[in-house]
DNA sequence: AAAACCTGACTGGTTAGTCAGTTAGTTACC
DNA sequence: GGTAACTAACTGACTAACCAGTCAGGTTTT
């Protein structure tokens, strides 16, 4: 069993650890750092998560559900609106700049074959690509999107752009991420729209992109 | 002074360290790992590079000149051919899969404010964005590329795609990186070419019209 | 012989995880 | 409504392992 106080503390530790690890990486963040920032002893961190790896997994659990709630908030098949959603997500980075790049940092740190986190991160990546490809395929079937585009390749491209932008945000968070992404999204919609290529795109009622 | 034997050893150490660090990160790779792989003592590594940071800087020096030779091999202003060049670079990843992602890994590991490598990595990123933006701007002036595209935003987008694809390669190197990139490049050329349909949906109000 | 190259042994600092014991809160029972 | 038994939460002190860098001396190259 866990008390109210216990689960509160747990959540706080996850929040603190997420922030620190997103900045300094898992290897660059010590349990003592996290404990100090949260105002508890280092042993308390171990008490709650067993091992450091347990803590990282808890962080990933929290992030997975959070990010899922953002990108798939309109259900598993937003169609072409996915570009608008992505655009809004990037625009919201400014609200929690410390958390941006967490996944990229963890991936970069855990690519070694022997690393315990690798399978989880790889599965997570594949799942997101599959979901993206699926909604793109549906868009094609509904006639919203051109049929001569490979959905899987496009899904890989979208995810590459997003994670690459996170990396860029890490090196210099003053880049115009929101504006760049809003232009990118508009361009994608214009080019992928089923009537694109001829005389321009008549944007449907869901194709609008928020301005960065 | 340095002898033939000395500089050979130095180069070998850089090669070994590059491979190991691209996989396991700087913090995840010990001097002993590198020394063992190269068949020397750990103290020999310190002898050649002074400190671990010195070694990482030597690695970055080597990578900088190597990558520069690839992407800017046709001079500083390849124009729209930049997309073909990038496509070829990604296709060549299969030849040296262990080295892909080195820069991304180092960036992800060194985002902390206190980190000594951060300024160098940030400067490197900015330089590449500037170079890309410059050649895109030149393309616009020459009339090869549409005038209603922000060169800097496009440069950021291109670099984000590339580094994001490297990250994806890290988690699963069996993704169709080359095919995805060649499709991406073709799409970019088709959409950015000055004769591409420029009416319809684009970001921002008031599309500027290219001269001539 | 001088200089460059390299080693084995060592050191000081760091860090994840252990452990014995303390405190706070909750339930059970009279 | 008081207290005894129990459990979750937490601490301070410790340890074993690890790792970058030092050093005194040996070997190879020029």
Task: Give a verbal description of the structure.
The structure is a homodimer of 212-residue chains. With 212 residues, chain A is mostly helical. Helices cover 64% and strands 0% of the residues of chain A. At the A-B interface, helix 6, helix 7, helix 8 and helix 9 of A face helix 6, helix 7, helix 8 and helix 9 of B. Chain B binds a DNA duplex (30 and 30 nucleotides) through helix 1 and helix 3.
Short description:
The structure is a homodimer of 212-residue chains. Chain A is 64% helix and 0% strand.
Largest sheet geometry of chain A: none
Mean pLDDT of chain A, to the nearest integer, reads 88
Greatest chain-chain contact: A-B, 62 and 54 residues
Round the Cα radius of gyration of chain A to an integer and report it: 20 Å
In terms of quaternary structure, the protein is homodimer
Q: Helicity of chain A, in percent?
A: 55-70%
Category from helices, strands and their pairing of chain A:
mainly alpha
| End-to-end Cα distance of chain A | 46 Å
Number of helices of chain A: 9
- Regions of chain A with pLDDT < 50 over 5+ consecutive residues? 198-208
**Shape call of chain A:** elongated
| Count of distinct strands of chain A | 0
Beta-strand percentage of chain A? under 5%
């Amino acid at each position: 069993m866990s008390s109210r106080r216990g689960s509160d503390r747990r959540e706080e530790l996850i929040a603190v650890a997420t922030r620190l690890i997103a900045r300094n990486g898992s290897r660059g963040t010590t349990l003592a750092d996290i404990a100090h920032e949260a105002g508890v002893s280092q042993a308390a961190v171990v008490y709650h998560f067993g091992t450091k790896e347990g803590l990282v997994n808890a962080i990933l659990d929290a992030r997975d559900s959070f990010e899922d709630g953002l990108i798939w908030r309109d259900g598993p098949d937003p169609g072409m609106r996915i570009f608008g959603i992505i655009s809004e997500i990037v625009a919201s980075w400014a609200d929690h700049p410390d958390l941006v790049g967490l996944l990229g940092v963890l991936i970069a740190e855990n690519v070694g074959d022997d690393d315990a986190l690798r399978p989880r991160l790889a599965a997570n990546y594949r799942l997101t690509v599959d979901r993206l490809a699926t909604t793109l395929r549906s868009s094609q079937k509904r006639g919203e999107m051109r049929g001569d585009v490979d959905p899987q390749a496009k899904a890989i491209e979208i995810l590459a752009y997003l994670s690459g932008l996170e990396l860029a945000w890490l090196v210099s968070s003053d880049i115009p991420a929101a504006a760049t992404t809003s232009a990118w999204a508009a361009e994608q919609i214009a080019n992928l729209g089923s009537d694109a290529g001829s005389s321009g795109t008549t944007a449907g009622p869901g194709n609008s992109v928020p301005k960065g």
